[in-house]
């Protein structure tokens, strides 16, 4: 009987271990989500303006990561404050240079400046919000030091990664700052401001990250724990570097009776007058922040420990370490990334930038060539009207023949005509693209065809012809009013936006061989039905860095993203992007995506705008349009040139080609590769150190890791045995998504959205979400 029972017992315990393991993993990841704390289409009305926007915390949770969505070109700095239940925002956006949370003292959760990257808290550490935490509102304070040029609105802010799981340790921020009574005399090569405060709480706190902040005169900022004539360094920073949270020095604990001290060194040799401490750019600041963690049972410390603004104790600073006045070594990477942009950010439009006798008809498409010229596809003396097609989408005016004058105009950035071409070839031009080989690709909605030409050979004979002339269709060999075309940089694939009737994307090889077509209905499962059919696929562009196809789903007012193999990745739908999406173009130099909106076919009122998205995350950065004296209603196509600081927009009525220049434009918030000796606190190496107030917490933490490791080993051993025993069987019958994707994340990482069941893909009104995102990582097919 013993031998007979052994397999049954093995299966019994294996299943129990598997269930326990799955419960453990699901418990770690359940309740993980994001909160987008961003300015709601904000436009500063003056220089040196502080503006706030707040959101109410809906449930008890813990912040585990802060991801900035900001650029130094638009924002001087931002701070995330916490406010209590007694606070009520006065409006959606309010001025807040002095009063952030009304008349109560706010807490600080996060601060950003000078293109600093994100901050990820150590594993098993979280910032408590909601519930019993005393934090009922999150308030984003934005300092716009310069008013924008033109009609620009900003969406800068912070994405908070949040979990409802209770961590072992809670985190808070302590700020030592010089108050407004202090000042810096002129012509001093080295002038110090000092702060110190006594720590009087019973709980031991452990600093794990620090941040320094000053303006132009700041050179060195240091913070120490002082105990029994001994200084223990928490952190030393150069405020002219990216102002993010750097890892604190190891093994620093602050206990009752310790003194926390900080010092700022300024160089005022460039100033002829006294510089005061204040909020504006020409004032100075002396701030040393540090993040600390404390055991969860002593979490009440966080609501008490916020600020220190007391002038430094002279008896202590007479013994301050001499190293505190030695500058950190030069770091060109940091200095380059953190360089402040002193030019005013904004967008200016030009309507009269074309020179000479440039005559353009109804402009249907624009793109850039490899020489930085704008290539315009227009309809000369012909236009698309309600009489152009019959009810079967056939062109009624084919007897008139092709347009007899040139319909392609190459225009330099100075507005002069370089060349014109295309007479006698096209009936009703629409989309245009120039690939890396300088081959011209165009679509003609009347002919229902796509063509490729080699400009280098100066001929009218196409290299590739796709579709059947004058015959609409929806199979592998035909189109119906194809609207746009884009080619992969390596020439591996051609993608056609098809278009006005079929609402699909068709993929070809570079020589014109059909590969596949894809749309919402071609997706696996029910996801396509949940997201709904695309309504006029009006434009297509390629995100070359991510190898993704971005489709302008015009009448649905959204951008649909596929991979190069046609698998749906996500849908970008934003409450600020209203109306119809006419154009979308990726600009590699700044890694941004420009989205052009216009009036929907329904006639609903909508303001046409250009929206700028960060291409790596598709998060909204800012948007713009001309002032009211420039027509911008009937927008149709968009292109970007230069260093993504020139944007061209065509209008169907009137026949206008606008040039927008983005001033002081910079790349999105950078994520530089820092030297190995400076490890980001957002890196995985920033784990909880062997700090605890009693052996119970240390044992619990180490024990949890040990149990987890044992469970993992046993699980994989069991899986290995099962695979060996069942290698001749058909397959594993288990359908659990955790078994399909065994790549576990450590700590409180965001839950991968492999399983889409129960997710609402139709709502775009969530206050806590910027985009409507779908990520299908279960598909492992080739992305070619």
UniProtKB/TrEMBL annotation:
Keyword field: Copper, Disulfide bond, Glycoprotein, Lyase, Membrane, Metal-binding, Multifunctional enzyme, Repeat, Signal, Transmembrane, Transmembrane helix
Domain Copper type II ascorbate-dependent monooxygenase C-terminal residues, every copy: 170-320
SUPFAM superfamilies per record: Calcium-dependent phosphotriesterase, PHM/PNGase F
GO cellular component, as recorded: extracellular region; membrane
Region Disordered: start-end pairs: 746-784
Cofactor(s) listed in the protein's UniProt record: Zn(2+); Cu(2+)
One GO process term, biological-process aspect: peptide metabolic process
The keyword Transmembrane helix appears for this protein: yes
Superkingdom in the source lineage: Eukaryota
Copper type II ascorbate-dependent monooxygenase N-terminal domain: residues covered: 37-145
Cofactor info, note text: Binds 2 Cu(2+) ions per subunit.
One Gene Ontology term of the molecular function aspect: peptidylamidoglycolate lyase activity
Family: In the C-terminal section; belongs to the peptidyl-alpha-hydroxyglycine alpha-amidating lyase family.
PANTHER family for this protein: PEPTIDYL-GLYCINE ALPHA-AMIDATING MONOOXYGENASE
Protein name: Peptidylglycine monooxygenase
